[in-house]
Amino acid sequence: MDIAWIQVFVLTLSECVAPAGKTVCQEQSFELQFLTQADCEYALQQLVSLKQESEAVIIDPARASCAPTARQQQVFASLGAIEEANRDTENWQAPEIKDTGPAVELASHQERLARLPVCGEEGVVAPCKVGDIIVEGDDAEAVDVWRRN
């Protein structure tokens, strides 16, 4: 296990919360971390709109933001190393690993490509190939295309 720095986006929200029936509010600030700026900005918009609907919360927009920064994180060599390090951790969930990624799709495309004849040769009908492109047959079903006006 190594240590590495990864970029994260920190959402900071400053607010002043008044207890029920009080006119004086208590200032508080909190931070949340996100891996992408888009997620951070979306969460900021949602939190601000949600909290502004409350009569007991005042948001300071000048101190509410999404800022890039870096955090030191543990880097594991493999999924097994992660599971070993977190075996005794309560509520541990192993990350989902999907095997249907681009490598699998590329392999099946290459296999099919190798079996197809070259388009344009005498007596060849679709499906056939032109270089690395597979040309499908004419008997494909029609597809409706929907567009928003």
Structure description:
This protein is an alpha+beta fold. The protein folds into two domains: 2-86; 102-135, no CATH class. The chain is 26% helix and 30% strand. It has three helices and six strands, in the order E-E-H-E-E-H-H-E-E. It has helices at 37-52, 79-86, 102-115; strands spanning 2-17, 26-34, 57-59, 65-75, 128-130, 133-135. Strands 1, 2, 3 and 4 form a four-stranded antiparallel beta sheet that branches. It has a two-stranded antiparallel ribbon with strand order 5-6. Strand 5 (128-130) and strand 6 form a beta hairpin.
Quick description:
The protein has 149 residues and is α+β, with helices and mostly antiparallel strands.
Blueprint (SSEs and pairs):
Layout: E1 2-17, E2 26-34, H1 37-52, E3 57-59, E4 65-75, H2 79-86, H3 102-115, E5 128-130, E6 133-135
Question: Can you give the helix content as a percent range?
Answer: 25-40%
Shape: elongated
Largest sheet: 4 strands, antiparallel
Oligomer: single chain
Order of helices and strands: EEHEEHHEE
Distance between the termini: 53 Å
Evaluate the radius of gyration: 27 Å
Structural class: alpha+beta
